[in-house]
Amino acid sequence: MQVFDLESNSLRELNATLHEQKSNTNKGKWEVQNPRGRHAIAVGLDTAMDVRVMGSTGYYLGGMNQKAHITVDGSVGPGVAENMMSGTITVEGDASQYAGATGHGGLLVIKGNASSRCGISMKGIDIVVFGDVGHMSAFMAQSGNLVVCGDAGEALGDSLYEARLFVRGSVKSLGADCMEKEMRKEHLDILSKLLKTSGSKAKAEEFRRYGSARKLYNFNIDNAY
Amino acid sequence: MKDNKNNESPRTEPVQSATFSNSVNSEIRRAAATGIYDIRGGGAKRKVPHFDDLLFLGASISRYPLEGYREKCETKVILGTRFAKNPLELDIPITIAGMSFGALSGNAKESLGRGATLAGTSTTTGDGGMTEEEREHSSKLVYQYLPSRYGMNPLDLRKADAIEIVVGQGAKPGGGGMLLGQKISDRVAQMRNLPKGIDQRSSCRHPDWTGPDDLEIKILELREITSWKIPIYLKIAGARPYFDTALAVKAGADVVVLDGMQGGTAATQDVFIEHVGLPTLACIREAVRALQDLGVHRDVQLVVSGGIRNGADVAKAIALGADAVSIGTAALIAIGDNDPKWEDEYQKLGTTAGAYDDWHEGRDPAGITTQDPALMSRLDPIEGGRRLSNYLKVLTLEAQTIARACGKNNIHNLEPEDLCAVTMEAAAMARVPLAGTEWWPGKTGEFL
Ligand SMILES: Cc1cc2nc3c(=O)[nH]c(=O)nc-3n(C[C@H](O)[C@H](O)[C@H](O)COP(=O)(O)O)c2cc1C
Fold it and tell me: Does the interface ipTM go beyond 0.90?
């Protein structure tokens, strides 16, 4: 395992080193020490490698990740895994706003709670939150799955497109055009698989499913305000 | 009174109201019939103070002109010198503005790429992501980073020659975008990861940052992902140009792109286009003042857009302090938009050449703002590219002609001192003297 200490080396060196790993397959495991809330740690990785960040981070941890597996032993600031394409990012603690924003693929697991706008504009990513999510989560979410093992805040799934939302606890309120939908076998299968891969002990049967009512899909004056 | 022709008193001519004009009344009737606001493409059509209200003084005894055809007049500009390892070097100070694939056809995007490349300048993606056609045919391509993040991915990001974070557009400061269902073909839907045929909204705010402090971190992230190689532009709408420019600099932008209210859009509410935002002319000096106050004028480059049509407009924007200009509408006209040769078809759509702006409907006779294969095929991208490069060449020659006449061997040596204004409004906005005086509104003190 390779160790990188952000106290003695710069963020630029860290990301450059990780980007260079493409051609160097024997350095597939990295430990990043002393993150101390720094922003943009391990962003733009595009090769399969394991990165473990030993502490809490600032904004955009793992932004635009492709293929890499990143674990944070702490909490993360806003925009963790933003626009992620593939790979996995696991946060042992909590996540701030916009977790998984616009993500296209891969799996984001938050073992604590996520703040507001979790999964905003998601475009195919899977997000599993062990705790609660804040208001306006899955706002304009296009595709992918958002799994909330705890409760969801106000206006869940506002202006939702085709993303699937699964919530085990309560939903404070649904946003415009978001409705509860029947949980069918295919949904239970997707959900069980996601719970299993992310290491959650929750049972798929305990969840409710929410999706788009598809009433805002074509502009209608009676929906405008 | 009896109906007696001989006794009839003289009548005044019918008078149309300036307030309730025919066009205002027709909009009232349209609104009453449909219950929905009018959506259209293009920029503000109302008359606002513009570059036409400025004149160059030219050379005389106190200024020495350069020979029109012989003496060199440099037009090169380098964008992104502040932080990027690989700034963009352009042969001419005129770039092609971001226009989305989706709003425009693939052939139109290819034409823009070809034309810009022939002319030695850059073109820009738009909402909806980067297409292969435009990457392939654009030697220098700026990749827009928009609130919708449609089609955004790190592979394309690394293929880009620069990134343009879009905060606003002059046609709709504070507004998002829309692409109506009829233009959502399979390809557009797939690029945007949305179902086919539905109306697509592009949000007005970025999903993962809010204020200037966040933006600074967002820029850091994008630089880290692209290894600090390519420049990062920030595009803002003409709203509060002094503060917005200052904040763009503070957030770490290499280039500020400032778009005034005449700037085009693919589709927005008419009320928004006509009533929100500042005229381009009113933006430039304020943005330059911000750059000067921060000591970064020319280090952070300023690109101005919104109603640039000819070489005089280019020269005037540069004289007021811009490093380059960007064109949207004019580029579309150059490749065939609103061409009178399609008049019969414009008539069928209830409009006329020059006024056609229902670009969102996807029925463009010129094949530019459409995804309909039959209409699209009317635009030959090679011919389109050639026309655009011709047009860019003329803009450059015209701007050089003016610069030489003002005695400048580099177009960027043009300055406000070379200008005067023919209206009070323009004098106030451009802070150049009203023609024949040494004064402009707001000028204080004898020596200022
Ligand atoms: C058809 C069309 C589509 C546009 N799409 C975008 C876009 O996707 N993103 C953007 O930032 N600006 C977009 N714009 C605005 C242009 O980038 C530019 O700001 C404007 O056209 C400049 O003004 P001009 O049209 O007067 O030259 C679009 C403009 C037009 C005409």
Answer: yes
